[in-house]
Amino acid sequence: MKTKTLFQSKLINIKTISFGLMFFINFFAFSQSPNVVLILADDLGYNDVGFNGSTEIPTPNIDRIANEGVKFTNGYVSYAVCGPSRAGLITGRFQDRFGFGLNPLYAPKDPNMGLPLSEETLASALQKANYKSVAIGKWHLGAHELLHPLKRGFDDFYGFLTGGHMYFPEQLTIQDQSGVKSQYDAYREKILRNYERVEETEYLTDGLSREAVNYIKKYKDEPFFIYLAYNAPHTPLQATQKYLDRFPNIEDKKRKTYAAMVSAVDDGVGAVLNTLEELNLDENTIVIFLSDNGGPEKHNASDNGVLRGEKGSLFEGGVHVPFAMKWPKAIPQGMIYEKPVISLDLFATVVAQSNIQTKNKLDGVNLIPYLQGEKELDDRPFFWKQFNKNSYGLRLGDYKYLQLNNQKENMLFNLEEDISETSNLYETKSATFLALKEEFEKLNKEMKDPIFMGLSQGKEYNELHPDRFE
Ligand code: CA
């Protein structure tokens, strides 16, 4: 009897201890999960940050991310315009895998106009490790209620659902979706906090920065993911006097306004970084900065520097973007990493830190072991397909293959030697061209055609959906 009791009590003790241990291990594992602040600029030129050499537009705060971590000199996105690039970023997968090959239209009644429900967002994946996730700013992954950020893994949302927005609060005059009668009316909708319309009182970029700071404070005791998707410096070009006054030497009005808008983003990044420091969170927070696509130079007066082409093009100017990341706990300071990386790697990097099993197969890799010098990154294919121009592109190692304009223009560039894509090697290195073309076609077989109509098909869409705005 006594023995049995002893045995039972031992069993209970072992159970209690092992439960306690499991709890402790889990708690410890999750409490070590890094916070993530992913800052996305919109239509920012490659050359328009200090860490890529801009002297005309100082960005001391954005530069801190590169200086206190790593600057990627060959950082890419998975598409040359906003919507598809964001779909790739937030899922960690080439967006053509799920038919997001075009920029979506603003169509709040259409549940198929946006990120399909088959896809897991980074926020949804992070729920498995008890993260709190907040989406701030531009969504652009669907305006239907089923595609709302709060339905896609985020706990909070402050921003707008379409592809751009007015910046001055007095221009936000449309109460809600029922007042929207055209694609660009949506730029004037009042800002959403979760599902409620609110009165933003500040210049929008400042408002989004304020929200990022407040949500970091709100969730300081949990692992958090802040997706801070500024719409700046996307058009319309609008800036307040405070920021314009910083550029007395820029005469061109467009360029001056653009510079002021970038400067406002830089202030916001500074406020975010300072908040992380004040709360002693900076050591174990991954802060990432990149643009969703290259600068549309003619449109918003951005500058892609030596890169050929601009937003909307598969040349480097469309897809090669300013890209930096810091995580003091794990990434050496002041590093310059030259191997090609892509926005899709960010998902894989973040979920790896909490050993999260993802729903779908990812296209990126966890970059941390490579940044720590433990491993050498293999050459990987970066795939780009532009449906509205029937144009293809692929980077593999030093080389980039392009077949543009209905695949009539064949090109091959050695980007290691010729980042400006001036010397077409299509004829002299035809074997390499064919090898990359084959790689493209292999991947292309895994991809889907667009599942919704894009921005350039607005008229056609309206004819098929006369109740789009009613
Ligand atoms: Ca963009």
Descriptive notes:
The chain is α/β, with parallel strands linked by helices and 470 residues long. It has two domains: 34-371, Alkaline Phosphatase, subunit A (3-Layer(aba) Sandwich), CATH 3.40.720; 382-464, Arylsulfatase, C-terminal domain. The chain has helices at 2-31, 60-67, 82-91, 122-127, 204-218, 241-244, 253-278, 297-300, 316-319, 344-352, 368-371, 430-444, 458-464; strands at residues 35-41, 70-72, 75-76, 132-138, 156-160, 191-193, 196-198, 224-229, 285-291, 323-326, 335-337, 341-342, 382-386, 391-396, 399-404, 409-414. The strands form three sheets. The chain has a ten-stranded mixed beta sheet. It has a four-stranded antiparallel beta sheet with strand order 13-14-15-16, with helices on one face. Strand 15 (399-404) and strand 16 (409-414) form a beta hairpin. Helix 3 packs parallel to helix 10 (344-352) and helix 5 (204-218) runs parallel beside helix 7. The longest helix has 30 residues, at 2-31. It is globular, with a radius of gyration of 23 Å. The N and C termini lie far apart (80 Å). Mean pLDDT is 94; it is low at 1-7. Bound molecules: calcium ion (CA). Calcium ion (CA) is lined by residues 42-43, 82, 234, 292-293.
Features:
single chain; 16 strands; globular; Arylsulfatase, C-terminal domain; disordered N terminus; 2 domains; four-stranded antiparallel β-sheet; about 475 residues; Alkaline Phosphatase, subunit A; ten-stranded mixed β-sheet; binds calcium ion; alpha/beta
Give a concise summary.
The chain has 13 helices and 16 strands.
Summarize model confidence as the mean pLDDT: 94
- CATH topology of the largest domain: the name is Alkaline Phosphatase, subunit A
Low-confidence stretches: 1-7
Largest sheet: 10 strands, mixed
Indicate the radius of gyration in whole angstroms. 23 Å
Strand arrangement within the widest β-sheet reads: 7-6-5-4-8-1-9-10-2-11
